[in-house]
Amino acid sequence: MAAIYNLFIINKSGGLIFYKDYGSAGRMDTNDSLRLASLWHSMHAISQQLSPTIGCFGIELLQADNFDLHCFQSLTGTKFFVVCEPGAQHMEGLLKVIYELYTDFVLKNPFYEMEMPIRCELFDIHLSQAIQKDRVVLLGR
Fold first, then answer.
1. From which residue to which does any coiled coil extend (predicted)?
2. Which phi and psi angles does 119 have, rounded to 5°?
3. 3-state SS of the chain: helix, strand, coil percent to 5?
4. Could you give all domains of the chain from N- to C-terminal order, each with its CATH number?
5. Quick one: pLDDT band at residue 141, thresholds 50, 70, 90?
6. pLDDT above 80 (res 25)
7. What does pTM read for this prediction?
8. Distance in angstroms (rounded) separating the CA atoms of residues 34 and 12
């Protein structure tokens, strides 16, 4: 069983620009993934406004009985979040690695248009390698 169930990348306006399923129990169709990304973007924005502390950047971790949701927001407002097994370790580090891959292989791609869905083969390859490396480290497989 994989430590990571899903990966989502949401642009600053709340649009889903990348989704990858890594073996979650209930597969989501395109509409479900779009709905979930939109919901998370809204919850993240509301949490920033409702926070009693000054300088809050939104929800970074949401824990439930059957999953954890980890979020990393870049300075440009792009959000990266993973849905993973409860208690999975080092997800913040993995999200930063994914962000580095995004900057290296998506943003530096001369054919990529900002805020549009990500269709970059090099990003997919390196992302798969990073996820596989993370699985080996976390699960010993």
1. none
2. -135, 80
3. 40, 20, 40
4. 4-139 (3.30.450.70)
5. very low
6. no
7. 0.86
8. 14
